Amino acid sequence: MSAAAIALLRRCALLLLLGSASGVSAAPEEEEAAAEREGAPGGQPRELPSVVFAILARNSQHSLPYYLGALERLDYPKERISIWCVTDHNVDNTTEMLQEWFTAMERHYRNIEWRAEDEPSSYADELGPKHWSNERFEYVMRLKQRALNYARAERADYILFTDTDSILTNNQTLKLLMAQNKSVIAPMLDSQTYYSNFWCGITPQGYYRRTADYFPTKNRQRVGCFTVPMVYAAFLIDLRKGETANLAFYPPHPSYTWPFDDIIVFAYSCQAAGVQIYLSNQEYFGFINVPVKSHQTLEDERINFVHLVLNAMVDGPPMSLSRHVYLPPKHLTKIGFDEIFLINLARRPDRKQRMLSALSEMEIDALVVNAIDGSALNSSDIKKLGVDLLPGYYDPFSGRTLTKGEVGCFLSHHHVWKEIVERGLEKSVVLEDDVRFQAYFKQRLLRLMDDLEQTQLDWDLIYLGRKQVNSEDEEPVEDVRNLVVAEYSYWTLAYVISKQGAQKLIDARPLSKILPVDEFLPIMSDKHPNEDYKKYFPTRDLQVYSVRPLLAYPTHYTGEDKWMSDTETSTIWDDDSRKTDWSGSQKTLKDSRVTSGTSGHSFHGSSRDEL
């Protein structure tokens, strides 16, 4: 057997090692060329392909610690990785962070070449740090071309371009992409919205074109490795393939007439060279931040990224900070409230940790309240607490009576209301431990409280997250932005409550006529449709409002893989042997008026936005 044939077999073995699922191989002449370049002495393990990571960083201090943390954790030999990096036009600490990280990591990587160009701090024709001017586009194209030239000069096998707000949380990403054996391939990244790092259609003029494939691909209703006309933010180029030799970012192709934008220029270059671009959504690879509009600020971008970090905590895998970049400790506050309560079951430490991490990201200090675990109570314990069922109560959807989990949930909230009254807390936030926060949660909540202060609105409870049961319009509150009078609603996952409101709820003496807490609150505001229930609570003057749009949603809904309810799937309240035999009620289904990806972001017509 010839040396070339042996090398070819070793090359195939490498693809198998990397987990290839595509079954597609390169042309024989490309295999042979690769084998000759990567040949190893007989009997010796072959080195994995060499890779250049191209990093362009500008005003990235908000995302860099997570971006660099993801690079550190990639499961790929660092001695096979070279890093080419330029940071430019910064007004934050991006340069200092990179300097610190490169100093700590330079001995681990094959080679590191980087340069900082902080002066000037802006482009002459840009309107702000998030504005993409022609001068900025051209400069970025030149930098990407320099990175590509560097990788070719180093005879690297691959070059990986990743934006610093694209976080590869899957540490197998590099191997998985290589195993597909494509000339240009991108890992599909998830975001706070329907935005991602690919287009499914492009017009003859180089603009985005809607197709029927985008949403099924983004939502993983179809899974695979697909040809697409455009990828950006994170993609891998196989430099060993002859067809990639003519790919370029700058100057644009001589016949180029499309928009002057680096990602569109590259897409055209692929088209002109006959190189197919691929997108893989076969795994969850990581996350991409939704870009802010050109008139927005670096603080807006930071808040956007915080929201992405929070989403990653829920959807997973979560982002991890670099071990080699110093970050000052966060200063946590009650953000103007007397207390922020976090209700958590002791047997759910994972939920507590996620919620505390999410609140810490927003610099919010919460007090953890140990929830009463209804499933740990037997029927005699419940009766000793003075708990008795509201006569005639049955779940409106399943027909069952109260569960122990629902008893525990009510007792937990009741305990918080008592503490509010006993401590004289004028305004508090109550959170359960399964909350997905929306973008600008803290900022929008603070603005709401300012508006309430200005208008002197008489309020007792304000839903921050809920499920509106009926479809009728709700009355907007005059002079208070994004606030409505709450009609019949479910869920108690997040709300603001006043001392006056807590006192009203306690004075109703609900434990002797208990029902689910999210049925009790509409009764107390006189919004519940069941007149038989309401007659047991003659004073029903709770002033209840809701933010709109909502600031919080459940992390998961009935039918989703990670859905689990400690309130609805437990034994019946007064019968230790009778378990509920269903997987969730209408209460925990997603509201049909809420679409996946709802996040508080407004979509905009940038060429970088899929929508």
From TrEMBL:
Signal peptide from the UniProt entry: 1-26
InterPro entries to which the protein is assigned, alphabetical: Collagen_mod_GT25 (IPR050757), Glyco_trans_25 (IPR002654), Nucleotide-diphossugar_trans (IPR029044)
Stretch list, region Disordered: 574-611
Highest taxon in the source lineage: Eukaryota
Keywords for this protein: Endoplasmic reticulum, Glycoprotein, Signal
Start and end residues of each Glycosyl transferase family domain: 338-520
Keyword Glycoprotein found: yes
Compositionally biased spans, kind Low complexity: 595-605
The keyword Glycoprotein is assigned to this record: yes
Family: Belongs to the glycosyltransferase 25 family.
Protein name according to UniProt: Inactive glycosyltransferase 25 family member 3 isoform X2
Organism name: Eublepharis macularius (Leopard gecko)
Gene designation per UniProt: CERCAM
